Amino acid sequence: MAFLDDITLGQYYPADSFLHRLDPRSKLFAAFSLMTGLLLTYNIYILAGMALLFLFAIRIARIPYALVLKNLRPFLWLFALTWIIHLVWSSGRVLWVVPGTSITLTREGALLGGIYAVRLALLILYAALLTLCTSPIELTDALERVSRPLKRLGVPTHELSLMLTLSLRFIPTLLEEAQRIRNAQLSRGARFTGSLRHRVRGLLPLMVPLFVSAFRRADELALAMDARCYTGGDGRTVYAQLRLTGADWGVITGSLVILAFCMGL
Amino acid sequence: MRMTTRTLSAMALMTALTAFGSLLRIPFYPVPISLQSLFPLLAGALFSPRAAAGTQAAYLMLRLLGLPLFSQGGGMAYLFQPTFGYLLAMPLTAALVARGVQSLARPPAMRSLALVMALGALFLLVFGTLWLYFSFAWITGRPIPFLKAIGAGLLLFIPGECVKVAAALLVARKFQSFLRS
Description:
By secondary structure, chain A is mostly helical. Helices cover 67% and strands 3% of the residues of chain A. Chain B has one domain (5-180): Arp2/3 complex 21 kDa subunit ARPC3 (Orthogonal Bundle). In chain B, 65% of the residues lie in helices and 2% in strands. In chain B, helix 1 packs antiparallel against helix 2 (38-46) and helix 3 packs antiparallel against helix 4. Chain B starts with a helix and ends in a 7-residue tail after the last helix.
């Protein structure tokens, strides 16, 4: 049970570029309308256009290509499967019959599978681009602003976004704490290895102290917030003001045009 | 709904604990058991339905916003993983478990708590599997046989899920004095 092994620096790639400087709200909007557009289209030319647009976008975002493509790795099996399923189960002009079986590979299948795989890849890449060039804090901010109308319906949007920020801040603390508790329990002779039964039981001396300390921290935090007269989101001002500039409106309009195009074709 | 600062901060910490839990793995043959789905059960045992769902929804958001912890499966791209359903089911599961726990006597008997958690875990698996089935059909444009989806998405996980229910029970029992505080 090692938990400090598979930590990376996360999705966000800090850089100073046009895309990084855009208002997070317009990036959110653009990403979602482009993704909706992709969901609606099977047209090869549109897909090719979207691919070109994507290359252009990472070019101006100054994000290394390798880093972007890394996002596709967990999906590789899915692309392969998508393509193969279409290749094997489509009817059309036969390219090749697998000897000794009735499996036929068709031209239409290869093409259709390709379209499906490319579309999925583009969806993933656009989604990844949003998190690559916008930090989690910025995105939380944008989400809070965008979801403000929901407040009328009784959804505590401000509280939820504060929670996100708070938990972001506490995750590293908890990790450290967990490591410390683990070491402490090991020094008391706790066993985290052995049979499954042992391992499940081994969770207890780790989880229980961790929960206790986490909720103690929560209490302290609540006290600190009360002491500073925190009264919720009403009438609260923010330090980082979001402002839509001309570039933002350009991006929003552009993405709407592309969406309209995808819907029309 | 007005939240007290105490609920708010406890929820934030529960979200952080969930994020931590998704890094925990019990190495086990053939697939390591990830402890991620243990946390909706625990959140359900410790919070009111809305708050429990809130903690898990916040975790989901963190994951989609590209939480700086995961090399794989982070960021908005996770929406398109066929396994996204298991994640999406977490807030719902937490709310269900919390609802169930609310209807139990206080402090809840171990056996009924176990039943509620097992039902919650089952709900998570069923939801995840259905999502797996439909998203796969949509992504590839061709459905896989439904029974295969159930086999791969549900039956395979049941032993692991039993282990998790047991672990959640063990932790929740230690917290019985803490319940509903």
